Fold this sequence. Notes:
transport; single chain
Amino acid sequence: MTAHLSGASVTNSTVAQSASIAAVELAKVGKIYSAGQVTALEDVSLTVAAGEFVSLIGPSGCGKSTLLRIVADLEEPTSGTVTVHGKTARQARIDQEYGIAFQQSGLLDWRTVQENVELPLELHRVPKRQRRERSTHLLEMAGLGDFARRYPAELSGGMQQRVAIARALARKPPLLLMDEPFGALDEMTRERMQSELLRIAGETGAAVVFVTHSIPEAVFLSDRVVVMSPRPGRITAIVDTGATGEADDDTDIRATEPFFESVAAVRRALRAGHTEPTVRQDRP
């Protein structure tokens, strides 16, 4: 079933994505807490293609972060199956198939910026020379080459988040999981970081699953925006934005009609999700 809202394509959650090996495959995933008293997620099915940028959006408490943690194998689903690049979530975690970044950068204060980026490589016993080459490349890519020997306390919040993203990419994961990484930043820094993330994801080819409360952020960043209902969290619609964002001209894109149309489409889908299980084909 497909509908069109303000020029953006909206589909229900049963639409499959064609890809040789999906980055993430969720099939009828559910999560129940407190001895069956709280249903956080219900019947969530979603495919994220390799190299695709997908955002999860919905009201507070709808299970967006829980779903991300299930993909990362930080929590176990009560029902359903999860695969990451054809592996179980547990095996994907063991094999370091993904990098992860949260709202707080989580940097170690006593390590320099470069040492923070190198930490995953150090834990996997990568030789020092290779660690240094990789971290230097990532810091240059993140625009932080001149800050390699600084400590986290000497950086701004946006710079710390760029270090955290660089660290998440250290082992060249084909998947990046991000839980509101820019939520605590001011608007100008947030927009710069959105552009940086698009550039980095484009250069590395990593798929991204991104949790946010911001409709404009989701539309700017994503190939598709996955809309979730209030608890129990279900996927009520998927809005195809047509990849409206580009890192080198974000200001122009955010002022274009297609961008506004996609924002309106996500907003309408969120409203519909409060009352309907899917977005109907005849919805204007």
